[in-house]
Amino acid sequence: MSTTLIWFTEDLRLGDNPLLSFESPPEALLCVYLLSPEQLVPPGEGLDWPRMGAPRRRFLWQSLIALRGELLKRGSDLLVRVGEPVATLAELVATHGVDEVRVRVPASQERGEQLARLAETLPGGVRLRPREGGTLLEEAALPFAPEALPASFSAFRRRVEAACRVEAPRPAAITLPPWPRDASRGLPPLVEVCGRAHRWRPDPRGGFEYHGGEAQGLARLAAVCREGGTIARYKQTRNGLLGADFSTRLSPWLALGCLSARQVHRAVRDWEAAYGANDSSYWVIFELWWRDYFFWAARQEGRGLFGPRRLPPPDAAFEAWRRGDTGLPFVDAAMRELAATGWLSNRARQNVASFLVKDLGVDWRLGAAWFEHALVDYDVASNWGNWRYVAGVGRDPRGDRYFNLLRQARHYDARGDYVAHWLPALAELPAGLGRHQPWRLAPEYFSPPRVVPEAWRHELIEPQECR
Asked: In what residue span(s) does the Photolyase/cryptochrome alpha/beta domain sit (predicted)?
């Protein structure tokens, strides 16, 4: 009996999933997801949080339950285990007579090294078949060799927009080969894997609750691309801070592969055909190109994506930053939103990253590691690539990517509604820029920032501007 094992990773969907496309279907199909124990432990010495935090574990488990339901409808099933991937896969291959293992081509060198070890472990005659998927473009469609990836995103975008056509997404399979006889199936309850993730719920002040799974992702995509939906005004609202629909909020489903980039691209093009293209619809695709760029950059960087392997010990400035306790409202509001919801707007991410690296002088890798833990939409290539970009290291290095927090606050939160939303004590102050420097308006109740370098204080808004 021919048996294929599908190793699901960041591709938890049936639609547009090349792993489930067969020229000649096997007689049995074993679908597996493996949660590595490395995801459940701290990323370095002196750090007290696991790499995968409660919001992402909860979203992951929702997505796995949904994936299993879709597989069952088509005659298959899903097995979820917590265990070291290479050893677990080798055991499954030997136990069930697997003759082919399929897995998505990874972005990170960490997963690539797992595939290399797996290839060495598999017995002769068992084929390991990495398949591309999830990006707009596959390697063969790039107008350059991957090792010749342009140094800047702008150069990459110009090349691919001029030379490439994005293929249509593949439809989901209607039926799949049956489950191997006597093979284990199902997944452990989340409460047994992580009680905190089982209990965790997002703060309702976030205004949006993410539910994992392909159907949920497609429903959100449909809402974004309906007549008058977010896509119609996205370029004007994308720098917002409050509300459910200033952003597409598709990133968690894209990160875990509940949606593919091509599915989003197709939905945007369909919207343009119905209502006419505009700057906002283009900007959604523009950001999908960013996602592709970070994927190919991560493939090229290898282990260098993460900087030196050993993380430095956290200092007091970093701890105040991650707790949202710096005393600077624009930073603290964002970090508390992240902790309470698992999500943060792109504008807020750039601001808090710049502040940590450029103002506090903290190693950017600590910030990237904290985001890996805290974000529900963590994506290895986009997260580490964006942090490197802000820090001015790696590809396209520049030292002028600096966000002055108070100037940003003037522009994006002039009334102080965002900071008052997440720091309720500030709501007692009059709406306006004074909420960003409450120590000026009410020094008896608010202290100046605790961890801002002295040189930075010269950038503070003059007192009269706070009134």
From this structure: 2-136
Q: With pLDDT > 90 as the criterion, what percentage of the chain qualifies?
A: 86
Cβ-based neighbours of 334, under 8 Å, separated by 6 or more? 324, 344, 348, 349, 351, 352, 422
Q: CA Rg, the chain, in Å?
A: 23
8 among annotated binding-site residues: no
Look up the pTM and report it.
0.95
Answer positive or negative: Cα dihedral of 252, 256, 258, 259. positive
Q: What is the DSSP letter of 173?
A: P
The confidence score (pLDDT) of residue 466 equals: 40
- With a CB cutoff of 8 Å and minimum separation 6, the contacts of 90 are 118, 121, 122
Cα–Cα distance for residue pair 355/184, rounded to 1 Å: 49
Q: Are 358 and 444 in contact (CB under 8 A)?
A: no
Q: State which H helix or E strand residue 262 sits in.
A: helix 261-275
33 is in an annotated binding site: no
Residue 21 in marked binding region: no
234 labelled ligand-binding:
yes
Beta-carbon contacts of residue 20 (< 8 Å; ≥ 6 apart): 6, 14, 172, 173, 176
Whether residue 49 is annotated as binding a ligand: the answer is: no
Q: What is the per-residue burial (b if ≥16 Cβ within 10 Å, else e) of 58-81?
A: bbbbbbbebbbebbeebebbbbbb
Using an 8 Å Cβ cutoff, are 166 and 137 in contact?
Answer: yes
